[in-house]
Structure formats: C-alpha cells, structure tokens
Amino acid sequence: KEYTNPTPTVIDNTNNTGGTGGTGGTGGTGGGTGVSPVPATFSQKVLLEEFTGTWCGYCPDGALILEDLIDHNPGKIIGASVHEGDPLQVSVFNALDGALGGVTSFPSGMVNRQSYSGQLMMDRNYWEGAANILLTQTPPCGLAISSYVQSGNLYVTAHCGFNTTLSGDYRVTIYLPENSVTGFPQSNYYNDGSLDPNSPLVGLGDPIVGYAHNTVVRTSLTAELGDAIPAAKMVPGGEYVITKSASTTGYNVNNLSIVAFINLVGTDPLSHKILNVQEAKVYQVKNWD
C-alpha cells in the first residue's frame, strides 16, 4: 500500500567553500552555473508541511487554503503535502510523525516547524497567521538550487549559505513534490453543501474522481530529517553544497518541484525548526534571494 521511494544516492559533495568566522566573513565562490557567491542577506520564506490523505473528507478544504496562501504569497510560502494512510504515503510521514510528537488530526500542518498559538501541528485556520509572523523574521541563512535530468535520473544541487555563525544539529533537507497527481479519488465532506454552502467543493462528488493532488511529497532526496551541515560551513560567508539524485520513474517531470530547506533537528518536538527554504522547478537555476 505504501508508495516505494526511489533510492537516493550522493553524487557529489565538492566545492564546499567556507567563509571566515567572526562578523565580517566573505562570500563563497558560488557552487555552480548561474549560482552567485553567497550574499550578505537573505529573504525569509516559510515551508508549510500539510498532513493530508485521500480518505480525509476535510482535507480538500485544507488543500484550497494551502493553495490560496501560496498564490497570495508567491515565492514566500512554499507547500509540501505529506500523505498518510493512502498510496501516496512515503517514509517522510513516518519520520515526521515519529520525531515531532505524532500527527493526530487531518488536515493539519506545520509552518517552519514552529509552534503558533500553542500548536505545532496546527489546524488549517492558523496557517496564515503563523506564516505572516514568521515572514517578518530575518534569516541567518538561505539557499540556491540547480538541477538537471539525465538518463531518467534527477540530479539536484542545493547550496546552503550563511551570514551568521550557527552551532547545533543543522541539516539540509530536499523534498521532491509533484503537482497534478491524479488517479487517487479524494474524499469530500463538502459535497452536499452542509458544511459550507459557498465552498467550491460543493457538487464535485464524494469522493472527487479525477481530483488533482498538488504539492505531493513524492520522496526526500536526503535523509527524511536532513543531511548534516558541517559546523565549519555555518559561518558568515560560508557555503555548503550538496548534490543528490533520484529516479524520475513514475513522476511527471514537468509537474515536479524541488524544495530544499535548512532545518535544526532538536531533542524534542518543540525544539525542531526550519530556518529558511527555497523552491525551484526542475532545470531551473534558482539563485539566492
């Protein structure tokens, strides 16, 4: 029943230039074609990890909320839909469920894995408020992404840049989400209009046949909780570059995106945190911003 992940392999981990310590480090050299040296500042972005399932009748409403937030905050709010209990479930769910205290409601979501209004895995009505607060922060790091496909394999290079010295278990994680995934009918409690007569889900059926699932996390190219970033790279001007690969078999490459983020792995659910995130399409060179 569970979807089988392609086996990711490390292809390269070279060109890791570090800046100098202290307060005035210089930028890195840039890790690849189209990626510039590490800048002095980065824009803050947030990752909304949504927990969902085809069996969940409330979940298409959560999907609409997530899509609306992405549309109204282009390039700032990035979505990653993690399925449970259906054929779209992958090992990412098990890792997050185990490390972050357990997912008890659907749809729910985490915004940069930080609590808001006392909730880490929060109700969909809190997602926007949490994101708006986090978007006002000044991040200590940022990312750039490049990728290509060759012989049926996707190769992704993530650049992690820093303008502050960090100490702790910081990692880089790379998700591979896919849009417009069909063939998995979606339960829909909004069909008869009793929950919300104005919902665009009214009259679509229960289940919705031909439903297009978006931002579906298909696999993690890194370990599910990320690959460790060396402490020597987490200094002003430091740059850590990692390249990973996975098979594209079973995916529509045109609908794939690459989501890379820098995250702190804590000792309990409330001490995990995502510092910053970047998204790119396959073949796109997404520079620092």
Summarize the model shown.
It is built from three helices and 13 strands; from the N terminus they run E-E-H-E-H-E-E-H-E-E-E-E-E-E-E-E.
Q: What labels would you give this structure?
A:
289 residues; mainly beta; four-stranded antiparallel β-sheet; 3 helices; globular; disordered N terminus
Helix content: 10-25%
Give the CA-CA distance, first to last residue: 40 Å
How much strand content do the residues show?
A: 25-35%
How many E strands? 13
Q: Shape, please?
A: globular
Q: Which segments are poorly predicted (pLDDT under 50) over 5 or more consecutive residues?
A: 1-31
- Oligomerization: single chain
Instruction: Characterize the main sheet.
Output: 5 strands, antiparallel
The sequence of SSEs as H and E is EEHEHEEHEEEEEEEE
Structural class: mainly beta
Radius of gyration equals 19 Å
What is the mean pLDDT?
90
How many helices does DSSP assign?
3
Task: Give a description of the structure.
With 289 residues, this protein is mainly beta. The protein is built from 3 helices and 13 strands; from the N terminus they run ββαβαββαββββββββ. Strands 8, 9, 10, 12 and 13 form a 5-stranded antiparallel sheet that branches. It has a 4-stranded antiparallel sheet with strand order 1-11-7-6, with no helix packed on it. Strand 6 (141-150) and strand 7 form a beta hairpin. The longest helix has 14 residues, at 59-72.
